[in-house]
Amino acid sequence: MKKHWKILLGILLFCIAALVYIALYRPAKADFESRRDSLNSSISSLQSEVTETQCYADVQEKIPAALAELDEARRVLYSNFPAEMREEDQIMYILYLEEAFGTDIRFAFSHPEDFVQLSDGSTIQTLKLTVNFECSYDEFQEMITYLATDNKITSVYDARLNYDAENDIAVGTITIIRYLMNSDLLEYQKPEVNAPGTGKDNIFAEP
What would the pLDDT profile of 136-184 be if each residue is shown by its tens digit? Predict the structure, then answer.
């Protein structure tokens, strides 16, 4: 041992160095390289964004006004759709159709369903209403045309009829889709209803 202590010390130091290299240096180096690569990637991405932004530097000041104009255009477009169709709105719409078609209509209340979501988070919804009809065949065609071209945004989803050619009577049902717009840009508007008079305040009062 005394004769070869230098050799043994060298071997011991070598083992310690190897252990430090394996246990400490290599993991630290791998972590450093990973962080370095991630940082370089972030720098490259930021440089690309800066380069792209510089290309539009001349229009940066116009962006707020353009966004405001876009919001206003959306608001105008969305205003063509009702925000909701509650039960009272559905009744008013059926009364509107009864007046347009000159007939009594039977229907059941319906609930809206999501149809498509827009880029600004708004959602177009659909509400299906099935109504009955009894008319001549020409009047049936006119009714379909009216529903398809009415200023209220609708479409005819389904039509079922039984036709008596001898008497020219068409009887059946039509399923109408009303399109709604669920958007922060719209507020629900209550329908205007003229409430009927309720009579006397005091039933014992003289007329």
Answer: 888 888 888 888 888 888 888 888 889 898 888 888 988 999 999 999 8
Half-sphere exposure in the Cβ direction for 102 (13 Å, CA): 6
Report whether 89 contacts 110 (CB < 8 A): no
Q: Distance between CA atoms of 109 and 91, rounded to whole angstroms?
A: 8
- Give one DSSP letter per residue of the chain, joined into a string: --TTHHHHHHHHHHHHHHHHIIIIIHHHHHHHHHHHHHHHHHHHHHHHHHHHHHHTGGGGGGHHHHHHHHHHHHHHHHTTS-S---HHHHHHHHHHHHHHHTS---------EEEEE-TTS-EEEEEEEEEEEEE-HHHHHHHHHHHHHSSS-EEEEEEEEEEETTTTEEEEEEEEEEEEEE-TT---------PPP---S-TTS--
Q: What amino acid is encoded at 136 in this protein?
A: S
User: In which residue are the tokens 């290299």 written?
Assistant: 21
Rg (CA), the chain: 38
The pTM score is 0.62
**Three-state SS across 120-176?**
CCCEEEEEEEEEEEEECHHHHHHHHHHHHHCCCCEEEEEEEEEEECCCCEEEEEEEE
Task: Give dist(CA 107, CA 112) in Å, integer.
Answer: 15
